UniProtKB/TrEMBL annotation:
Residues 236-270 form the FPG-type domain. PANTHER family: FORMAMIDOPYRIMIDINE-DNA GLYCOSYLASE. Pfam families: Fapy_DNA_glyco, H2TH, zf-FPG_IleRS. It comes from Aerolutibacter ruishenii. PROSITE patterns: FPG_CAT (PS51068), ZF_FPG_1 (PS01242), ZF_FPG_2 (PS51066). Monomer. DNA binds at H91, R110, R151. This is Formamidopyrimidine-DNA glycosylase. Residues 2-113 form the Formamidopyrimidine-DNA glycosylase catalytic domain.
Length: 270
């Protein structure tokens, strides 16, 4: 599944091709993805100029004066910018045509992605009540400490809560907790301020590194320039249950926490 780094990589790849371009038409090859595609996409979007390509959590917003198409890649979605006459492939569901002669083409075999509409000046329901962006200054150790007081949930579950911070999925939570030396099972409300400072720094470093590498997880993710966006990442904990801890050599533990597979070192992470 595309995680925050893949979505940010997609945003950075798309922006130079979309920003400043006018939408000349929209082709929907089916009426829905995960949800029905709203009529505004074919009615209001054509004629609008894309001012900015923005990301919030794992959503992409193509901002225009009238409103913004709101895209999510779901489990298997990908976006490419192509010459308008490029032959279709299976699962090419949507084309947004641009005055450059190119199209933004949305492909999604499993159709857990979405294409919705956020009217100008409004915040879509899906974007309300989201926590801060992990790479923003609003997210730091002091914030995590304050937010976690009296929280009895395991710290890993707390860190993956989108109301606490967006975009820290299972892989990145496991890796950040390993880097910070915090047991994923520890109660969120019983982690000290100092250790939350280390955890916030680890989240920023790991996500930043993954973005620099161009995303990590989806094998068939195609970056906007056509190159595979999947890069083998050197994961320390995630997916390595039973293997030696990279730090102390003892076998890594594996168990389910909050119904998510979790791997950690019971010696290095307390
Ligand atoms: Zn260890």
């Amino acid at each position: 599944m595309p995680e925050l780094p893949e979505v940010e990589t997609t945003r950075r790849g798309l922006a130079p091709h979309l920003e400043g371009r006018r939408v000349t038409g929209v082709v929907l090859r089916r009426p829905d993805l995960r949800w029905p595609i709203p009529y505004d996409i074919v009615d209001t979007l054509p004629g609008q100029r894309i001012e900015q390509v923005r990301r919030r959590a794992k959503y992409l917003l193509l901002e225009t004066a009238a409103g913004s198409p709101l895209l999510h890649l779901g489990m298997s979605g990908s976006l490419r910018v192509l010459p308008a006459d490029t032959p279709l492939r299976a699962h090419d569901h949507v084309d947004i045509a641009l005055d450059s002669g190119q199209v933004l083409r949305f492909n999604d075999p499993r159709r857990f992605g979405c294409l919705l509409w956020q009217p100008a000046g409004q915040t879509h329901d899906l974007l309300r009540n989201l926590g801060p962006e992990p790479l923003s200054d609003d997210f730091d150790g002091d914030y995590l400490f304050a937010r976690s007081r009296k929280r009895g949930a395991p710290v890993k579950t707390f860190l993956m809560d989108q109301k606490v911070v967006v975009g820290v999925g299972n892989i990145y939570a496991a890796e950040a907790l390993f880097a910070a030396g915090i047991s994923p099972l520890r109660e969120a409300g019983r982690v000290s301020r100092e250790r939350y400072v280390a955890l916030a720094q680890a989240v920023k470093a790991i996500l930043g590194h993954a973005i620099d590498r161009g995303g990590t997880t989806l094998r068939d993710f195609i970056s906007p320039d056509g190159a595979p966006g999947y890069f083998e990442q050197e994961l320390s904990a995630y997916g390595r249950g039973g293997e030696p801890c990279p730090r102390c050599g003892r076998p890594l533990k594996q168990a389910s926490i909050g119904q998510r597979a979790s791997v950690w070192c019971a010696h290095c992470q307390r």
